[in-house]
Design goal:
The protein has 461 residues and is mainly beta. The chain has four helices and 18 strands. It has a 16-stranded antiparallel β-barrel with strand order 1-4-5-6-7-8-9-10-11-12-13-14-15-16-17-18.
Amino acid sequence: MRDLCLVLVVSAALASSGELALAQQPPPELPRAPSLPEEPAAEGEPDLQGQIDQLRAELRRAQEERMREVSPLSLNGYVDFGFFVPVGNNGVGWIQDYGNRILPEPPYNQYTWTFLGDILGTPVNSRGEAADLGTAPNVDRFDSVHSGGKPGFIANEVNFRLQYQLAERAILRAGIDFVPRSARQDFALGDFIDVDLAELEYLLTADGKTSIWFGKVLPVFGIEYKERKSDQRFGITPSLVHRYTAESQLGVKLRSKLLRDWVIVAVSATNNSSGTEQFHFHSEIDRNSGKMLNGRLALSIPVGELLTRLGGARLELGGSGEWGPQDWASTNDGDLWLAGVDLQYLSANVNLKAQIMRGKAPGRVEDRAWRLDLHDSGYVELDWQFLPFLGVLVRAERRDAVVTLGMERLYLTKQYRYTGGLRVVFNPHVVAKAEYLHNQEYGGIPQFNNDVFTTSLVLSY
């Protein structure tokens, strides 16, 4: 028993001494994660500005890629559908002076046939087509509308315009009018196609303010050529002097904006004058070796800082000239010339436009080239879009002209016209218009009823 107790005491003492020894020993070290080595800065690493420049370059490349994804081809145009009512004289804008009973004095009594009024004085659309050209003796005309004075619907034209970016500074443009009409011959189609524009524009300066054009280009005379098309014109019908200034010309043209856009200069050398193709003084292919020289100089003035911010209001004063061998003449003898001044006030919802001009062409009987004496003629027009969906037009104009072919034919025009119109905008692609044109003769020409009421629905795409 005594031995057992001794064993227990010795065991307890050994255990106590072991625990004390363990307590005196330091705790074992836990495994430690290896530390990352400190890497030295890479040589040539870009600083903050360099990183910004790199991001800018990447953004520029992304933008260029997006631009390349945009098609260089754009298509637009319109469909112009209308209804018109000729008021009097079977839709014809002239009367014949049989036997010189109206104007018996010279020089009017020296011509075989004398006609009073304006052959294109009863337009029904933006093309300037007359309701009827009448049946003058010893002449065969293309009467595109030929309504006989009856009211009716008309598909004025289907317009198609194309633009293609050939290069960074080279732009191709083409414009085609499809014109549905009736033929007078049995089993024939009267529809025709009018190639209105076929030009190459090259931007000579990076800011796009100086360009040169080649091909069938817009004219530079006056201001009305800027709104030749139905979707560009505030109203419907052109002015009485539109026929002298608005036709495309075949040749080369240069235009530039100078002195912060205050000065506008445009010049061209072309085969033909800017007279419209349906009038007497237009020949697209030259029959002589000379060229028509055209020019316009304008001063364009910003009108008020506030107005400029609201709608880019500007006041523009311009002068135009045209000189060269007459169309249809086979020689360079006898030059046609036109000269005029114009004024425009253009703002967000009010436009005031005015133009006055005169001119002369000698004519040439051998080539059946007509003679022209155009005395002071022109127009003033106010366009006011007084509500976003509703606008009004008021225009007063005058044409004083003598047009002759040898001693065979005389057309004497002394005419005032007063036009009132409404414009309804349903949305940017749908616009309806209506106009009433009152023609009034003066200067010894008897008044006859040759007014026109016309409408137009322009569907743009």
